[in-house]
From TrEMBL:
Recorded GO CC terms: glycine cleavage complex; mitochondrion
Protein name: Glycine cleavage system H protein
Entry annotated with the keyword Phosphoprotein: no
Self-association state and partner proteins as the record states: The glycine cleavage system is composed of four proteins: P, T, L and H.
Cofactor binding note of this UniProt entry: Binds 1 lipoyl cofactor covalently.
PTM-bearing positions, type N6-lipoyllysine: K142
Length: 210
């Protein structure tokens, strides 16, 4: 059975009302200049506006003051990679011990919470680090966080690539994003650090508390 003319008319009017409502919504949420931009620029502006409103809703910290590597907000991010064979500190640094050398960096969980890393402050080679003492800092789009050494020892190498490419900490935290290599002065300190399972549980509990 074919629809009557009146039924077709009602459908058309309904579509017009929906389009009008959609147009009113767009004009009420975006400035006039928004519509003078090209489609590509419009899309980018919309994404920036969405990101800004999302950040405000989550109340992300944008403080430039230094802090330890703590979760930036309360949404659980425990699905970050935790590798077997490494040792982990409760300040979210990792240690890979091979022979007489220990490589140190920050964990995937830490960089995940920090967001995009834009600057890395590193120590000088031939210096020394002490357990649970700061040896550098990582600055992201959200905050600046001190990096604490999980162990004590002499710095034998620094990853200078991070000076030009700080984003390696985001893209490859356990490989290209390592920070320093140390000759441990007290290898027994490694025994006090967490294994992969312990660290995973630690992250889950910490996120739940926030």
């Amino acid at each position: 059975m074919r629809p009557s003319f009146s039924a077709i008319h009602l459908k058309i009017e309904h579509k017009r009302e929906l389009k009008l409502l959609g147009a009113l919504f767009i004009f009420s949420h975006f400035p006039f200049e928004f519509f003078q931009l090209s489609f590509e620029k419009t899309e980018k502006m919309a994404l920036r506006m969405w990101a800004s409103s999302t950040a405000n809703a989550l109340k992300l910290s944008s403080s430039a003051s230094k802090s330890h590597l703590l979760p930036a907000f309360s949404i659980s991010r425990c699905f970050s990679t935790v590798l077997e064979g490494l040792k982990y500190a409760n300040s979210h640094e990792w240690v890979k011990h091979e022979g007489s050398v220990a490589t140190i960096g920050i964990t995937a969980h830490a960089q995940d919470h920090l967001g995009e890393v834009v600057f890395v402050e590193l120590p000088e080679e031939k210096g020394s680090v002490s357990k649970e003492k700061s040896f550098g800092a990582v600055e992201s789009v959200k905050a600046t966080s001190e990096i604490l050494s999980p162990i004590s020892g002499e710095i034998i190498e620094v990853n200078t690539k991070l000076t030009e490419s700080p984003g390696l900490i985001n893209s490859s935290p356990y490989e290209d994003g390592w920070m320093i290599k140390v000759k441990p002065s007290d290898p027994a300190e490694l025994d006090s650090l967490m294994g992969a399972k312990e660290y995973t549980k630690f992250c889950e509990d910490e996120d739940a508390a926030h």
